[in-house]
Specification:
alpha+beta; Alpha-Beta Plaits; 4-stranded antiparallel sheet; 4 helices; 26% helix
Length: 139
Amino acid sequence: DSAEASPSVVLENIERCCPKTLHLLLENISGLHVDADFTVELIPEKNVAVVTFIKSIDTKEFVKKCSQHKRGREFKMTARVLESTQSIKAENLPDSISTDYLTLYFENARNGGAAVSDVQFFPEENSAIITFCDHKGNT
């Protein structure tokens, strides 16, 4: 089960922690280095950050360490392993983009190389939901 765990962790309630402080906290908890071993994507409108580990680690163990870390508790942050999904939402798409282009883009090895099973457009939002054949992203 651990081998199947996502390489990403969602940190919630991050508003009390500026980005530089968050990076240091994550380095202290994980013993790894930001950019070299993991990346952090801030999503301020949701008050979350997504930490994706480049270096293979036990993300379930990392989540456990986060919940036990003194500073993490002081910031009232919570952590959970990011669940696997078969779909993603692409936003801010140009009006002229086609289903074929999106399919080929996401099937291209440089962009992840996963087989796409469906593309659903939402023209009023300039977005689309791309559904992959396999949640692991490598079919």
